[in-house]
Amino acid sequence: MSQKDLKEKTIDKSAPSKSEDSKTIPVEEPKNTSKSAEKSLKDTTDSKDTDNNTKKNQSMEDKNSNSELKTFFVEALQDIYYAEAAIEQSLAKIKNKATCEELQEALEDHELVTKKQILRLEKVFKLLGKEAKKKKCDAIDGILKEVDEMVKNTEDGSMTRDVAIIIGAQKVEHYEIATYGGLAQIAITLGYEKVADLLEANLDEEEDTDYLLTEIAEEHVNFEAAEE
Ligand SMILES: [Fe+2]
């Protein structure tokens, strides 16, 4: 069965005017139809198809072992979409609690990066022809609650508080790294190459941030905290 031509969809005009977000996005059809012949494949069955072809597609749909995986994939995207929004709010609060200038800058930068990542996720939903929806993520809520508590339990203006913020932020990054790493691989498995590229772009940024936080801790903050 040949693949359907890419459908053109227009990006939500309310999205910020990043050049990469102001173009039309085609809904991405899986490259490997044998692995992803679900509803989209059913939709490709137009009047030109013979009855036999229709039956064949229907049977591919029924036997598609990845349709459950696709459902899981979309729900996991809704989960990380929720998580990114919660992280953005948390960074807006936490950045002002840090003392070390480098840490403040890293948190500010990551707040901007997070906004960009949210836009990429919205693009992912569009590519999949799905509505961008949030699904409550208890894991990120728990980590962010812990970050808040660590900040409350450390002295204002102390380097020990900065240590706590770095460890908390790295817990967040590692959660995101695990999520984006896994989801990018699932996207590849399902044949969604553009989606995989977007998820990998988010993954790279999380890894860079994690590395930067380690550097700030090891080069300045930990030593200064040890002197308090
Ligand atoms: Fe993120």
Number of separate strands:
2
User: Please, what is the CATH homologous superfamily?
Assistant: Ferritin, core subunit, four-helix bundle
Could you tell me the CATH topology label: Ferritin
- The proportion of residues in beta strands is under 5%
Q: CATH class, please?
A: Mainly Alpha
Order of helices and strands: EEHHHHHHH
Main beta-sheet annotation:
2 strands, antiparallel
How far do the termini sit from each other? 69 Å
> What is the overall shape?
elongated
Indicate the multimeric state. single chain
Mean pLDDT: 80
CATH architecture: Up-down Bundle
- Helical content stands at 55-70%
Bound molecules: fe (ii) ion
Number of helices, counting only DSSP H or I runs of 4 residues or more: 7
- Strand order, main sheet: write it out: 1-2
**How many domains is the backbone divided into?**
1
Radius of gyration from the alpha-carbon trace, in angstroms: 21 Å
Biased composition (Basic and acidic residues): 1-12, 18-65
InterPro entries: DUF892_YciF-like (IPR010287), Ferritin-like (IPR012347), Ferritin-like_SF (IPR009078), YciF (IPR047114)
Pfam families: DUF892 (PF05974)
Region (Disordered): 1-65
Structure explained in plain terms:
The chain has helices at 39-43, 51-63, 67-94, 101-127, 138-152, 159-190, 193-226; strands spanning 7-9, 25-27. It contains seven helices and two strands; from the N terminus they run E-E-H-H-H-H-H-H-H. The protein has one domain (67-226): Ferritin, core subunit, four-helix bundle (Ferritin, Up-down Bundle). It has 228 residues and is mainly alpha-helical. Helix 3 (67-94) packs antiparallel against helix 4 (101-127), helix 3 runs parallel beside helix 5 (138-152) and helix 5 (138-152) runs antiparallel to helix 6. Bound molecules: fe (ii) ion. Fe (ii) ion is lined by residues 84, 87, 114, 117, 176, 206.
